[in-house]
Structures are given as C-alpha cells and as structure tokens.
Write a structure and sequence with these properties.
heterodimer; A: mainly alpha; two-stranded antiparallel sheet; 22 helices; 2 strands; 72% helix; B: mainly alpha; three-stranded antiparallel β-sheet; 3 strands
Chain lengths: 504, 174
C-alpha cells in the first residue's frame, strides 16, 4: 500500500532544505490565535493567507496550510474550555466537560487533556493516512446520501444522551434545534420561517448562533461575579497542572483510540469534522460504566471530543488529496491553493505527485511534535484568562463575538443571530433544557434534511432501498448496537447482581 | 427580594394547582414557533421535498411540549402558599434580573449600533457602559481599556484580516 520509492523521495524533499520547515511554527501560531477570537474560522484564516501562497513553492505552501489547520484544530479547544465558546462546530463536544472543569478550577488539567488528545488524534490520523490514503479515498467515494443520512441520525441520537435531568425537555430542545437548522430556502427554493427577511434565506448563521447559545448565555449568568473561578487558590496557571492533564490523558488510551479512529473515519465525508466530536463523545459516554459523570467535568469527555475532531483533519486531508474533494471550508481553501500552483487534487495528483503527498503526511506528523511544544506555551499564556476580572472579560468577549459574527456573516444577520440566540440560550438554561441538544439539532438540521431528501429521491420512497446499501446497513447495525449496548449491559449487570444475591 | 415570590396558583374545589408560569410561557413559545414554522413551510410549498423533515419533527415537538407543559402544573395542598409551586428552580434575586436584563439590552443596543453608526464608536461605548455597569469605577481603566480594545480590534479586522467593518471614523470624513 505504501509506495516506498515515493516515500524516500518525500524524505529527501523534506530533508534537503530547511525552507519548508520555517513556516511550521508561524502556521501553527496563526491557527491557534485565530480561534482565540470567537467568530473567526480556520477557513477564514486560510483564505486571508492565500495571497502569500504564490510566493511559496508548492510543498512549503502545503506545509504552511496544514500547520495552520493543525494549530486551529487544537486552538478551538481553548475558548471552548475557558469561556464555553466553541469557535467552530468541531469544538461543541469539548465544551460539555471542558467548561465545567474550568469552572471547578481544573482549567490547567482540562487544557492539558485537550492538547494531548489533539496531538494524539492528529498523529493517529496521519499515520493511518500514510498507509491508506488511496483506499480511504476510494472508500469515501462509495459513501452516498443513505450513508450520510445514517451518519446524521447517529449524530442526532446524541440528543437523547444529552437530555439532562428531563428527557422530554432534552428532546424538545433537540427538535427545536433541528427545526431552526432548516430555516431558509428549501431544496425546491421555497422560503421557510424567514419572516420575510432576505438575510435568512441562506439559513440561520450557525457559528454566531452557537456562540450566542453557549457563550453569551453563559456570560449573562456570570454577570455580577468577580472571576470565572470563584476560589482564589484555584485561579492559578501552572505548567505542572497542564502536564498533569497530559498524564491523565495517557490513562485513557481506549477513549483516545476510539476518538481518533472515529474521527479519521468520519473526517473523510463532507462536514465530517463537525459531527466527529459529537459521535465520539456520544459513544464514549455510552460505553462508560458511569455515564452520569459526563457533562459535569469528566476528563474522558474532553479526550473523546478532542481526539476525534483533531483526527478528522487527517480524514478530510485523505479526501482532499485522493479525490480532490473538499470536506469543509478549510479544505476548500486549500484546493484554491492547489490551483494557484496549477495543480489539481484527486487521483491524478496521488498518482503523479505521490512523493508530495507523502511529504505532506510526514511533515504533518512532525507538526504534531511542534504543536505539542508551541501549543503548550500558548496554553500557558491563554490560561491567564481565568485571572481577568469578569467585569472586563465579559464586555471584551461579547464585543469580539459581535464583531467576529459580523465579519463571518458579512452583514447584520451575524450579530442579530448572536444576540437573539444569547437570549434563547439564557432561557433554555434557566428552565433546565440542555443547550447542547439544541445546538446539535441546529448543526445537523439542514444536513439531515438534505441527506433524507436525497435518499428519498434515490429510493423513490422505498425504504427497502437501504438493504441494497451494505455500508449504510452496516452503519445502521452499529448504530442500533451502540444505542442498545448500555441497556443490555445494565440489565446484564442487574441479572448478575441478582444472581449473586440469590447465591449469598 | 425574589422576582416572583409567590408562584401562580389556581384553586379548584379543595385543591390548589401551582403553575410554573414562566416555564409554561417559554415552552408554549417553542411549541407555537414550531407549529407556525411547519404551517409557514407548508404554505410556502406543500411538496414532500419541502416538508420531509419539518412535518415529523414539528409534530414531535408539539407532542413533547404536551409532556413539558404537563410538568409545569402541580397539585399542591390547600394550605400551602409561600414558596410552593411547580418550579424547582432557585428564584431569581431582583438584582440578578436587573443585571441580566441590562446586559441583554446593552448587547442588543451594540448589535444594532455597530453596523449602523460604526463598530469603532459602538464597541467603545458598549465596553465603557458594560464595564461601568458591572462595577468598574476607575476612570482611566474605563477609558483606556475600551479605547485600546476598539482600536486594536478594528485595526486587526480591517487591515490585517481584510474584513471591512462599518466604521464611524473614516466613513463620515472624520
């Protein structure tokens, strides 16, 4: 599977000049910094740096962009943990346990956990890519709307696991989110729920809505307090504690491996990075013997989400390199960088430039080591957020969020969405609805509708069509097994306990 | 002082029914919007392609609402009055209500003012007002932090990131 001649050429390419390596640290730093601002995205940062691409040779340009991508993949975890702001959909799962850990004064450990999981996830993904870039690309092309639909449904089942104390409220919040996700023009061009505003024809801007629901609503609750962490003794930033987080990560190899493999697999499909962290979180929670601890600051929650979202980067790179198909905004911008050098991604690129593909994969593996060091230093600096008084932090973060959401949407729809969803988020929290369920619905609403519609059109309305799709069928089986497993396990445990009681 | 010291109660014969009115209104709002959204989508285009997800999810939302709404009503003892009701929440202190309401109002004002009069003036004013409202009393901090923040952020977005933002200074020849 590995073309060793091309691999050796790639090693020579990377070793013969120090020039490509010069862009790694700046790339990672830009990626990290961009996600410190709510509303800024990886694709935006990549697009901003596009004018630099023609001045670099192709390999250097690719390394620069993958370094930014690598930095951004970890960078989203920092505001997600410290401020409950998931800068992108990929970090939604990180907030579930990251912010509760930060509020409990375990922000250092939480950041260390996220850094370790990010590095591990990226390393696994690129190692997999090294051996299987071609087959992964060939597999990705077999995934059609029915398979995507099962994947979306898998994501939606997370709503059930994040129900909070009241199942009906969790499901209602999820349904509300799903409906909000479908606002705007339908596939037939019919406007739905737009109140006559043209700005809503493209749908509700998702990132400002998520920032509003999660962050702004949380910040309203913090108004009146002095610091994010009330206890002065816990408000420290210590490298030793960050390293403790890294050590804690090593104690959960199963969670890390599951997340990394899920992320690598799901990352190959369009939009996969947004769903990978949620699926990994959901599956880790289902597999846990003590699922009730999730959502209250469990380290495994951070590990599951971060290992998956970082490994999905490798998966999306597989699709980009092997098929020339972007799976998200960031890889779409990378494809533009390809065209700036008159190179087309896809099977011909894999065939004619195998050495370049291997060079990108090898350099990305090396970037994991650089990310560990640079990310650690950045984490240490970012951790000082907990020492800033809330009377300064709240207005600063809200201002950045509003300006960032305007920059993202390029119109007033972004800030208005943020403000409206901040109010909705506050009420959801106040009445004990799981905000995360609404966010998952919002993220998956339009995607699920599109997949459902395309599956319906392909099948002509016949459900048995799924039986002709072995991959979809396998995924449905795995989904059903994953839902039923916790119940089967608990009933087995009960039966064993009863048996033991009878024997005693 | 509580914002709602006595829960809404209805007396029927020898029983009282406590109603978690704020939650009931909120849940009703979600259900009403879901119903309206379904109707609006139907009116827009009654095709399967348009309603394939919306109709089942809306129907599910309305059904779930019935469960949630039912939980907002609780039968209580006839003698129970103060502090009894269907709400398990901590009552909001009036000061908290004011803080949250003013924070929301200031954010709404910033959202409208930013694109209208310019983000430079709007972000400076918003930060100053919010910091003052949250208890910052040092004049120098009140002026310098918003100023440095506004100048830095506007410069970064406009010049470094190439994202044009509506600005007061420059747009109006100032």
């Amino acid at each position: 599977m590995i073309d060793f001649a091309a691999l050796l050429t790639a090693v020579h390419l990377l070793g013969s000049s120090w020039q490509p390596w010069l862009v790694v640290v700046p790339g990672i730093l830009i990626g990290l910094l961009v996600h410190a601002v709510p509303g800024l995205t990886t694709s935006m940062a990549l697009a901003i740096c596009l004018p630099l691409i023609p001045y670099m040779d192709f390999l250097t340009a690719l390394i620069f962009m993958t370094a930014m991508y690598a930095g951004a993949v970890y960078g989203v975890a920092i505001p997600a943990i410290l401020l409950n702001i998931p800068g992108s959909a990929a970090a939604v799962g990180t907030t579930f346990d990251g912010f509760p850990m930060a509020r409990a004064g375990k922000h250092n450990e939480a950041l260390g956990l996220a850094l370790a999981a990010s590095c591990f996830g990226q390393a696994v993904a690129y190692l997999l890519l090294l051996g299987t870039a071609g087959p992964i690309g060939a597999f990705a092309i077999k995934l059609g709307p029915p398979e995507m639909l099962v994947l979306s449904l898998w994501g939606i089942t997370l709503i059930g696991t994040l129900r909070g104390r009241h199942l009906s409220r969790g499901l209602l919040a999820g349904a509300f989110g799903l409906l909000l996700g479908t606002v705007g023009l339908s596939a037939r061009g019919a406007p739905r729920g737009t109140f006559g505003f043209d700005l809503l024809l493209d749908g509700i801007p998702v990132v400002p809505a998520i920032v509003g629901l999660f962050a702004a609503a949380e910040l309203f609750n913090l108004v009146g307090r002095d610091y994010i962490i009330e206890d002065l003794s816990q408000r420290s930033v210590r490298a030793r504690l960050i390293l403790n987080g890294v050590r804690e990560a090593v104690r959960h190899p199963g969670v890390l491996v599951r997340g990394a493999l899920l992320g690598s697999g799901i990352g190959i499909v369009p939009g996969g990075h947004a769903i990978a962290n949620l699926l990994s979180y959901s599956e880790t929670r289902r597999a846990a013997k003590d699922p009730e601890k999730f959502g209250t600051g469990d380290p495994r929650g951070i590990l599951a989400a971060e290992s998956a979202n970082s490994s999905s980067e490798g998966g999306s790179m597989a699709t980009l390199l092997a098929l020339g198909i972007p799976t998200g905004g960031a890889t779409a911008v990378m494809l533009v960088a390809f065209s700036m050098h008159n190179i087309t991604g896809g099977p011909s690129f894999m065939r004619d430039h195998a050495d370049m593909v291997y060079a990108v994969i090898l350099s990305s593996l090396a970037q994991v080591g650089v990310l560990a060091v640079v990310g650690f230093a950045f984490t240490f600096v970012a951790g000082f957020v907990v020492k800033v008084r809330l009377r300064m932090l709240v207005p600063t973060v809200l201002s950045l969020a509003v300006i960032g959401s305007f920059a993202l949407a390029h119109n007033i729809a972004g800030p208005i969405t943020l403000a409206v969803f901040a109010v909705i988020g506050w009420f959801l929290k106040r009445f004990d609805y799981p905000v995360s369920a609404a966010v998952i619905g919002l993220l998956l609403g339009r995607r699920t509708e599109g997949d459902l519609l395309r599956t319906y059109q392909m099948s002509g309305g016949h459900l048995d069509f799924l039986l002709t799709r072995p991959i979809a069928l396998t995924m449905l089986f795995l989904l059903t097994a994953s839902i039923l497993w916790p119940y089967l396990r608990s009933s087995r445990t009960r039966a064993l306990t009863d048996l033991k009681g009878t024997v005693d | 002082m509580s914002a709602s010291p006595t829960p809404f109660q209805v007396r029927i014969d020898d029983r009282k029914i406590a109603v978690d009115l704020p939650h009931f209104v909120f849940a009703t709002g979600i259900a009403a919007w879901s119903g309206w959204f379904c109707w609006n989508s139907w009116r827009s285009s009654p095709d399967v392609e348009n309603l394939i997800l919306i109709v089942p999810v809306s129907a599910g939302a309305v059904l779930l609402y019935l469960f949630v709404a039912a939980s907002c009503f609780k039968i209580i003892d006839i003698d129970q009055t103060e502090g009894s009701g269907a709400s398990p929440r901590e009552p909001l202190v009036r000061a908290d209500v004011i803080k949250v309401a003013v924070s929301m109002a200031l954010l709404a004002a910033f959202v409208v003012a930013g694109p209208t009069i310019g983000f430079d003036v709007a972000s400076f004013t918003y930060m100053l007002a919010m910091m003052a409202f949250l208890g910052e009393r040092r004049i120098l901090v009140l002026l310098l932090v918003p100023l440095v923040f506004s100048v830095t952020v506007i410069y970064c977005f406009s010049s470094l990131l190439g994202t044009p933002l509506p600005l007061f200074f420059g747009t109006f020849g100032l």
